[in-house]
Amino acid sequence: PGRSRRKTPGCNNEITVNDKQAVLDDVLNLKNAIIRNEVESSFISAASPGVISLFFSNTHYPDFEAYIFAVADAMKYEYEAITNAGIGLQIDCPDLAMGRHIQYAALDTANFQKQAEMHVSALNHALQNINPDLVRLHLCWGNYEGPHHCDVPLSDIIDIAFKAHVSGISFEAANPRHAHEYTIFDEVGVPDHLVLIPGVIESKSNFIEHPELIAQRIERMAKRIGREQLIAGSDCGFGTWVGQAAVEPEIVWAKLAALTEGARIASEKLWK
């Protein structure tokens, strides 16, 4: 209910890129940090056309399809600026999951899926000049601490996410609402070109997961999709809202250390 009272930007004219320097500054800052810290790989996250359309209303374009594809055209610049610098691109797509109960709650599942297909088509339009090997997609049901009982099941959206022109898909798989969904991969096959990145630590809880639990989560996924198509991740980010840290920074680092140890334990078993 509070969302309806927020004052957010909206679209009342043709969409253009107003500040082309901002993303270049982000790229330069990250590249300098990579050099200083001798990091081997990196990524920058960017909003999907769909999630932009979710939060920012349209009063200019004649229909939603025209609007989301206009957003996609504008986002090409940011996406390509990141990947042209040799940095990985993570497309944050809460519109494909959270969008079900935020944007499309009035639709039945079939019609929501049609809309989600359009979101992916718009995303692919924006990514058309980018090597999919440089891109991953993040599915998110909303990085907020709430009941989440209206979350769309992963089984209703995973095949749609598979159509994105990306090489990896990360998704929530550690929190109490979605931790059971690894079993869908008993029946759902993963395309050969994709790596799955399930969350094995929560991003909304100050509990520090035990490394053995993390290892168990990794192993049960590996048994279903294969060890070569699996990377352990977190459910979502730890800095989604400016000035609102759901998890204390010191605990974030401890959770990431537990993830590292859990991955080591699982890897010893999976590669013995």
UniProtKB/TrEMBL annotation:
Residue ranges of domain Cobalamin-independent methionine synthase MetE C-terminal/archaeal in the record: 66-246
UniProt GO MF annotations: 5-methyltetrahydropteroyltriglutamate-homocysteine S-methyltransferase activity; zinc ion binding
GO biological process entries: methionine biosynthetic process
SUPFAM superfamilies: UROD/MetE-like (SSF51726)
Pfam annotation, one family: Meth_synt_2
Xref: PANTHER family: METHIONINE SYNTHASE, SYNTHASE, VITAMIN-B12 INDEPENDENT, PUTATIVE (AFU_ORTHOLOGUE AFUA_3G12060)-RELATED
Protein name per Swiss-Prot or TrEMBL: Cobalamin-independent methionine synthase MetE C-terminal/archaeal domain-containing protein
Organism field: marine metagenome
